[in-house]
Specification:
By secondary structure, the protein is α+β, with helices and mostly antiparallel strands. The protein has eleven helices and 13 strands. It folds into two domains: 172 residues, no CATH class; 198 residues, no CATH class.
Length: 390
């Protein structure tokens, strides 16, 4: 069976190339988009995951990090009064892209870049950078100093020692942080007081809290509804502060969910469409190849081959082409990823389960596409084949 399937596969080289390229392009598109989504989700979670706090107290409605929040600094004391709260920390996360930016005194009107200012207590380090580009121990900026994310620095040719001008304030870059930015948040870390001076406010974005009781929140799964979070201390603090209080896991999940809403549905829809297109290509190629080989299938049936044997030849032929195309598609994905990363500053993140699931999807669609050709092959009449001299 295998030799016949392979021979039929390579008999028409042009058709084989069409099938293989169709599957390869499909796999490349699917894997790249899934990898981009996984990277976006990983980036969305990375900052929150590294902040050592159990609770995030935010402005009402600001249930994820993409929604800007400002609350009174007096909220710190209100949260700290709760008997199960061990420690509280202020944090500012604010977009300063609208404020004039410059490097070493030169305004960056033609080189403006997105910058998210992160102000944190340098005495505790909570909310600050967790790794530096030079690999040394984490150090914290003083007044009029900044630790800048390495991606922002690379994109704008900013070096350690340069001075960044944010509005009327000059900040000297003392180090570059590693792996601290999301797709939309290009972070610069400064002391809390420096951030408040730049933003001309005494408010803060969040109150971060550590609590005694663990776990802080429990997630309940429902069969016919969205999962719900139960967090008693969150409810108690929300009642006293009249603000939103979320556990770290819930805040992280909401922030990742934003990306799923933005691009997840689009990627899934596109994946189904390109898989369907690939299935049509495989269907047409397999069907025409089967029609051309009807005399051979008729001979096989005439000498006693079962319908199952004939169907498996067609199926094997189809799956061989899909597998070759899949391998080329995986190689193509990793070949173009560095190029697109340099052009669009978007990396991808893939793992073995995702690749295997994609392979299973390609095989499933290919098997469905082969079904029509299999029916054609098994219903051929051997006597008709000999009579008409196919």
């Amino acid at each position: 069976m295998v030799p016949i399937a392979r021979r039929n596969l390579v008999h028409d080289r042009a058709r084989l190339v069409l099938v293989v390229l169709g599957v390869a392009v499909t796999v490349t598109l699917i894997l790249y988009n899934i990898g981009m989504l996984l990277y976006a989700m990983d980036r969305a979670a990375i900052y929150i995951a590294h902040v050592e706090a159990d609770l995030w107290v935010t402005r009402p409605g600001s249930d994820n990090i993409t929604k800007r929040s400002f609350i009174p600094s007096t909220t710190l004391a209100e949260v700290a009064r709760h008997p199960h709260v061990e420690a509280v920390f202020p944090l500012i996360v604010a977009d300063v892209s609208g404020i004039p930016l410059g490097v070493d005194g030169a305004l960056l009107e033609e080189r403006s870049f997105p910058l998210t200012l992160v102000g944190y207590e340098t005495t505790t380090g909570v909310g600050g950078p967790w790794a530096l580009q030079d690999g040394g121990g984490v150090r914290h900026p003083r007044a009029n100093e900044m630790i800048l994310d390495e991606k922002v620095a690379q994109e704008n040719k900013i070096l350690v020692g340069d001075t960044i001008r944010v509005g009327e304030y000059e900040l000297r870059v003392i180090a570059l942080s590693r792996d601290t930015s999301t797709l939309t948040e290009k972070m610069g870390f400064v002391p809390l007081e420096t951030a408040q001076r730049i933003l001309m406010t005494n408010d803060i974005s969040y109150v971060l809290a550590r609590v005694e009781t663990k776990p802080v929140a429990v997630r309940h799964y429902n069969a016919f509804a969205a999962p719900e979070w139960e967090c008693s201390i969150c409810d108690e603090l929300a009642a006293t502060t009249e603000l939103d209080v979320l556990s770290r896991d819930q805040f992280l999940e909401n922030s990742v969910g934003v990306w799923m809403q933005w691009i997840g549905v689009w990627i899934v829809a596109m994946g189904v469409v390109v898989l369907a297109v690939a299935a049509v290509v495989i269907l047409l190629a397999t069907y025409t190849a089967t029609v051309e080989k009807l005399p051979e299938f008729g001979v096989l049936k005439a000498i006693g081959a079962s319908n199952r044997f004939v169907a498996l030849i067609v199926l094997k032929q189809t799956l061989w082409g899909a597998t070759i195309g899949f391998v080329l598609g995986v190689l193509g994905t990793f070949a173009i990823a560095p190029i697109l990363s340099r052009l669009f500053d978007i990396d991808i993140l893939l793992n073995v389960p995702v690749v295997l699931l994609t392979y299973l999807a390609v095989i499933a669609f290919s098997a469905l596409a082969a079904f029509v050709a299999m029916r054609k092959a098994v219903t051929v009449d051997p006597l008709m084949v000999f009579h008409t001299r196919y």
